[in-house]
Design goal:
It comes from Pseudooceanicola sediminis. This protein is of the alpha/beta class and 420 residues long. The protein folds into two domains: 213 residues, Amidase signature (AS) enzymes; 143 residues, Amidase signature (AS) enzymes (Alpha-Beta Complex). The chain is 40% helix and 15% strand. It is globular and about 60 Å long. The two termini are 25 Å apart.
């Protein structure tokens, strides 16, 4: 069941939260052996949460909605292990702000979903893509995306510092939303890059993400109910060469479907200043990761060499390079705000192509990093597939704080694709 369907069923008395919990437990028992999306799941704890909701005098707007939580997000009653040895079994004793908000709204926290180590690398990908278990579900929010795609929870929380929400959404054929930076508190999430770290959200239905936007009290913004007359920019971005033929074809097909619904789709070539955004993102992540993981490396020198190199500044990034990267990002953010005023949304690839075969590599985040650094909202819309029958997502980007517009247009785009 989608989050919206659960809310209606519980509110109308057709199902209790306990019913939803039992159905969720059954779904996990059926799908989890193949998908392996969870690092921690306790059926008894889920039943206890449901019982508390059913016995409450008043229920919140998410009563009974099942939520998977990426295992770099703190939960008071479950371990938060970051997929690393040092934190195995560690219970922080408090909820992250986003989890706290969801519980206050009546949500059921199903369990902790698989992440790569500290949500900052490739190591730790046991989760399999529900569409093809030989392929990655993407990362670092591997388990969250796969759990939603497999129907083991209605919605799930991930994070994005590069492409860790949008790329898995594309690979798993679901909606993925990276909100405007800092519109949802990231208190209680493992820090990698304060400039880029953003909570991510997954759902199979766009209405569920709109429901979450209400719960997290996002800003009002235009929410069109039709593509007719909308002005959509088709942006291949300066890193277009990283895309595979399947994604190039998908972007073209997406434009055709949108035009068929009356949208005006126009080519957007970003000014040359955007050509260096990918490099700026890389410098900022390396610089901020150096301080974020210093204590981890000092305490656990057997961490993956990636973290040792980051802390040791193996790339020899200088303060001048860091200053340039921050200044360049600021310049591009201001420039994109001006450019985006001329469009209802920008359409761009959510990933380089279909999910790669194998579990050791979670895929290329090249198509995502510039949007993350720009701190704009991005919503990946499903509906298209590639030559191997695997999902391909298209991203819809708007100006900062226009998240609700991006959500609405992504939903309309998927509807147009499915109808086309």
């Amino acid at each position: 069941m989608t989050a919206g369907a659960i809310v209606r069923a519980v509110a109308e008395g057709r199902h209790s939260a306990a019913d939803i919990a039992e159905a969720t437990i059954a779904a996990i028992e059926h799908r989890e052996p193949d998908v392996q999306a969870f690092d921690y799941f306790d059926a008894g704890l889920l039943r206890a949460q449901a019982a508390a909701i059913d016995s409450a005098g008043s229920r919140g707007p998410l009563a009974g909605v099942t939520v998977g939580v990426k295992d770099v997000i703190a939960t008071h009653d479950m371990p938060t292990a970051h997929n690393t040895r040092r934190y195995e079994g560690v219970r922080p004793g408090v909820d992250a702000a986003c989890v706290d908000t969801l519980r206050a709204a009546g949500a059921l926290i199903v369990g902790k979903t698989v992440t790569t180590e500290f949500a900052a690398g490739q190591r730790g990908g046991k989760t399999r893509n529900p569409h093809d278990p030989t392929r990655t579900p993407g990362g670092s929010s591997s388990g969250s995306a796969a759990a939603v795609a497999a129907g083991m929870c209605a919605v799930a929380l991930g994070t994005q510092t590069g492409g860790s929400t949008i790329r898995p959404a594309s690979f798993n054929g679901i909606f993925g939303w990276k909100p405007t930076w800092n519109v949802i508190s990231r208190e209680g999430l493992k820090v990698y890059s304060l400039t880029c770290d953003t909570l991510g959200l997954y759902a199979r239905d766009i209405g569920d993400l709109e429901l979450l936007a209400d719960v997290f009290d996002l800003d009002a913004a235009p929410t069109p109910d039709s593509l007719e007359g909308l002005r959509i920019a088709l942006c291949r971005t300066p890193v277009w060469d990283a895309t595979e033929p399947a994604m190039r074809d998908a972007l073209g097909r997406g434009a055709t479907f949108l035009r068929g619904q009356g949208a005006q789709v126009v080519e957007l070539e970003l000014p040359s200043i955007f050509n260096d955004l990918h490099a700026a993102h890389s410098i900022i992540l390396a610089r901020e990761g150096r301080s974020a993981f210093l204590n981890e490396v000092r305490r656990c020198p057997d961490l993956h060499p990636q973290f040792l190199d980051m802390v040791g500044n193996a790339r020899q990034i200088t303060p001048d390079q860091a200053r340039w990267a921050y200044a360049h990002a600021d310049t591009c953010r201001a420039a994109f705000d001006e450019i985006a005023q001329g469009f209802d949304a920008v359409m761009t690839p959510s990933a380089c192509g279909e999910a790669p075969v194998g579990l050791d590599y979670t895929g290329d985040a090249t198509m995502n990093s510039m949007w993350t650094l720009l701190q704009v909202p991005v919503v990946s819309a499903p509906g298209l597939t590639g030559p191997n029958g695997m999902p391909l997502g298209l991203s819809f980007v708007t100006r900062r704080y226009a998240d609700r517009t991006a959500l609405a247009i992504a939903g309309l785009a998927t509807q147009a694709i499915l109808e086309g």
